[in-house]
Write a structure and sequence with these properties.
The chain contains 18 helices and 13 strands. With 482 residues, it is an alpha+beta fold. The strands form 4 sheets. Strands 1, 2, 3, 4, 5 and 6 form a 6-stranded antiparallel beta sheet that branches. Strands 7-9-10 form a 3-stranded antiparallel beta sheet, covered by helices on one side. Strand 5 and strand 6 form a beta hairpin. The termini are far apart.
């Protein structure tokens, strides 16, 4: 009779119960944060003094920020990505941003002995056979993987090795299902936006992130595309090390630079006034490079890097930008790419009628909850698909009573368009963080015109007329402001 291994039995039970325990943990914490806000909204409604009410809101946001940070850090996995999405200066309360922005590259790491096992199982060789040197302390650790600096045998240049955390995929799928259920509830009670479809698209994208061979192919494809379409480098894309790629391990060239989150500290360290003209010019160049690269990827190719959060952006010499982590990429179907180009033109031209038609063409189904539908619909288009904050808006607050999402309910949103929405919002977050207010729609206007022209949707004379008008306008003004 086979012997009974109590320890193995306990471990198997623990593994089977882990998704349930994680779900209970999420719902307990999410309910605590959500009900805290609902109770507070009732309490603050009795305060008539505006300044006192604002101070109360700030304290509530700080209290909630501590809870959200603890939940995201303690649970890790998918919730680190959630922190990256909501921890943006243009969307979340300032107290949330201050806490959540520090979660970039601060996920709990995988122990070195486990990393060694993953490397050797994936590569079919010992670490010493492949690497001259391998730094076991990771450069950074995120939700899906961590990265190490190393040097290959017989090479003189350093590389970066991305190693997937074991067992993380099952946990993230559990997290996503819980978030989808929470999104269904919130979109019915507070935010009139199709959050469920957004979560479904996130699920689709995250599944792809666990295959590093796909990421390597995406990196090569985008690197080649940007190189072929620009005389000088717009953004740096790491070169893949072909012999060190598997589903859970990916090696690429090491690019020297500083994280964009540390840019201000680096400027001060060099004795430059962070609010002066030199620093402002550097920030504008950084945003111009990123904006041009993304405009070309989305509108010209349709295949783009869909995760420009601060942890994936390095600033190199001469304000050059490096774009890292190609786990989240998206390929837009041609009708969506051209439909988005049409909406970009509508926003850049300040054309409310065309914007309304553009939203419908993209499959964004809305329901007006206000009298001035056309104006609010255009404002919603700006909020969703342009980096420039609308006039009079300093911070976007979806829970506020005067927000566009409260006035125009988004009943259906195409899942495939979420990556564009998220990319624009992350670019806006960067622009707010750098103190530069600009319109990506205006910057992308020539690319949108070109896309529509070559598809036959913009006539030859209209295309030439737009070019002449744009050149006259560009000599008189600039869309970049502080």
């Amino acid at each position: 009779m086979p012997s009974f291994d109590l320890k193995e039995f306990q471990e198997n039970i623990s593994i089977q119960l882990r998704p349930l325990q994680r779900s209970l943990q999420f719902w307990a914490r999410a309910a605590d944060i959500y009900t805290g806000y609902k109770v507070f909204q009732l309490r603050v409604s009795f305060e008539k003094d505006v300044e006192k009410a604002e101070a109360m809101w700030e304290r509530q946001h700080e209290h909630a920020a501590d809870k959200i940070y603890s939940m995201c850090y303690d649970m890790g996995g998918f919730f680190l990505k959630v922190a990256q999405v909501i921890g943006k200066p243009d969307l979340a309360p300032a107290a949330w941003v201050r806490r959540l922005v520090t979660l970039c590259d601060q996920a709990p790491g995988t122990p070195s002995n486990v990393v060694r096992v993953v490397l050797e199982n994936e590569l079919g060789k010992t670490v010493d056979d492949v690497f001259e040197r391998f730094d076991w302390d990771p450069i950074g650790s995120a939700s899906i993987a961590q990265v190490h600096r190393a040097r290959l045998k017989g090479d003189k240049k350093d590389v970066v090795v991305k190693v997937q955390h074991p067992g993380v995929q099952d946990l993230m799928m559990t997290d996503l299902r819980n978030l989808q259920a929470f999104a269904l509830y919130v979109q019915k009670t507070d935010i009139k936006f199709d959050l469920y479809s957004v979560c479904k698209e996130m699920e689709k994208q995250i599944v792809y992130e666990f295959d590093f061979t796909r990421e390597a192919d995406a990196m090569d494809r985008i690197r080649s595309f940007l190189s072929e379409n620009n005389k000088k480098t717009v953004v740096k894309v790491p070169r893949v090390i072909k012999d060190v790629v598997s589903r859970r391990v990916l090696a690429m060239e090491y690019i020297d630079g500083i994280p964009i989150l540390n840019l201000k500290d680096e400027i001060i360290k060099r004795g430059i006034n962070p609010d002066g003209k030199l620093a402002a010019a550097a920030k504008q160049n950084i945003l111009k490079s990123l904006t041009l690269a993304y405009g070309q990827m989305i509108l010209k190719s349709g295949f783009f890097h869909a995760d420009p959060h601060p942890g994936n952006i390095l600033i190199c010499k001469h304000s050059e930008v490096a774009l890292l982590d190609y786990g989240q990429v998206k390929e837009l179907p041609n009708p969506l790419r051209l439909g988005y180009a049409n909406l970009v033109l509508a926003i850049a031209d300040n054309d409310q009628i065309r914007a309304s038609e553009g939203l419908r063409e993209l499959g964004i189904d809305t329901l007006s909850l206000c009298e001035d539908e056309r104006t609010e619909l255009f404002k919603l288009a700006q909020v969703m698909f342009d980096t420039k904050l609308p006039p009079g808006v300093a911070v976007l607050q979806p829970f506020a009573e005067d927000s566009s999402i409260k006035k125009i309910a988004v009943q259906a949103f195409p899942e495939e368009l979420f990556s564009v929405l998220r990319t624009v919002h992350l670019l806006r977050g960067l622009s707010v963080g750098l103190g530069v207010n600009y319109s990506c729609a205006e910057e992308w206007r020539p690319l949108a015109e070109e896309a529509l022209y070559f598809s036959g949707r913009l006539k030859d004379e209209d295309f030439k007329s737009r070019n002449r008008r744009r050149h006259r306008f560009s000599r008189r003004s600039s869309g970049w402001s502080k």
